[in-house]
Amino acid sequence: MSVFDEPSEEPDQLRDQLRQLFRYRALLLLGLVLGMLGGAAVSLFGGSTYTATGEVVVHAISTAPFEAGGVSVDKQISMGTERQIAQSASVAAAAAKALGDSAEPAVLQRDLRVSNPPETQTLMFEYSADSPRRAAALVNAFVHAYLDYRQNAATQRIDTTVSKLSDELKPLTDQRKVLDRRIANAGGGTARATDESERSNIISEIADLQGRISSLKSLDTTPGDVVRKGDPPAFPSSPGLAVLLLAGAVAGLALGILAAWIRSVLEPRVRSVADVQDNLRAPVLGILPRRRGGEALLEVGRAGRGNRAEAYRTIAFRLVHDQRFAGRGSLLIVAPRENADAVSVAVNLAGAFAEIGNDVLLVEANLRTPELTGRLPLRPGHGRPVPGSWSDGERLAVEAGVDGRFDLLPGREVPNPARALSSPDFARLLTAPADPNENVVVVTGPLLSHADGLAVAKQAAGVVVVCDLNEVRRDDLDRVWELITGAGGHILGAVLDKGSRRRPLRGLTDSGPTQRKHGRSHTRAPLAAPVVTPQPPRAGHPPVGGTPTGVDSTSLRG
User: Fold this and answer.
1) Three-class SS of residue 249?
2) CA spacing 20 to 30 A to 518: which of 21, 164, 368, 490?
3) Is 321 within 8 Å of 311 (Cβ atoms)?
4) Are 156 and 223 in contact (CB under 8 A)?
5) Neighbouring residues of 245: CB distance < 8 A, sequence distance ≥ 6
């Protein structure tokens, strides 16, 4: 493969993956419906949520502004610390007490959000509740509880500092009084001058302390201003019904895709025509349309011009032009298991070969439960009965309508089917027929149920495997390939049958295998072929009816 082919394969792989997911459309639809129902349930039973908002501008409060060292008051506020205080349990307890709410502070804190817009000294309080009034009441309670907490803390700090300064002031005042008495009783001299100097220093210290106390008592302890009061919101903040339905649909679709992917990964059945080709190591010769009820077993020639009859003709022409079979010799039609109708394919391929103009012998090698004599329009043919030998038994003619007839060697119950199918008489029937131009089409029971088909596969010129399109498993096809090739047989291809009806429960999760290209394989399974008028055989050539219009000649060679 050249490098120029690789990019073109990527879209094919993507399309194939999408096809695999869309095979399980019911799972995708189920996930979508469940997601939307979940969104509707949340909207219906979850109730609406309302969010009220309050804003506070925080003021700085310093107990010693004269010790700030030249730093502005605004820079002394840590908004991160204030945000933590606003969300603290102490503030929540104060808010609950103010409202008379019996809820625990931790419960009230869950629905509170406090944020600080960048480059501001503003705290934004948001509270969510199930009603507008409760949301507004709680956000205002938290705002006022925070401001009260902050003011009480500032007042307490100031009172503590004033108390300490008053304690320092009292001994100085007492000492000044002592000095006043000593100065009043003393005469002149050095002692009086010393007492007056000491008294002057004490008075200066007392004045300083009294000034500091006055400054503290005059501080503005306003913690902040409420710039936005929490009003009852007019609309809920929770998503509406439309948003919840959309979110549920997206989530449900994602779950449906996941379920479909898991289902496709764990699916044991084939998922595409390419899967059949890969596991069987042979091309798909055709896909038979779904059978309608009441149709006869023989559809080619007698049943008119239906889609299934045209599909049988297409398969017959592909086999006629297949160099490995070339329309001559014996052909084994076999199914892996009972769910595939190999008998119908064998009968109609025999009819299609007869329609082309070939001499055909249909051999019912099902020696356990033979059934064809009761399902086909028969009349006695040129029988050559040999007692005790089934393969040399009487041949019956099958009326195929205006398109001709073919012979049938009906099956019959024998004590040992495997021995009868492995006998030299049956081998001569396949490898050395009485008429060299005669095509022998053999149908046996399911290959994986008993080994009758293996006895025929090693002697037939080619094997066609019939698979139920909705039931065939990959491991079954692998096993069929191993058995047939191990027995010395050669698989010409597979015929996929859609059957007569879908199983209703299976249809809930699966829409049947898809057709896709795989790697560089471009083999297509034609669904139908046009009606072809039989032509007389020419000397030296097998009797064929020509290549049908619309069929690729390269694909006819398998």
Assistant:
1) helix
2) 490
3) no
4) no
5) 36, 39, 40, 43
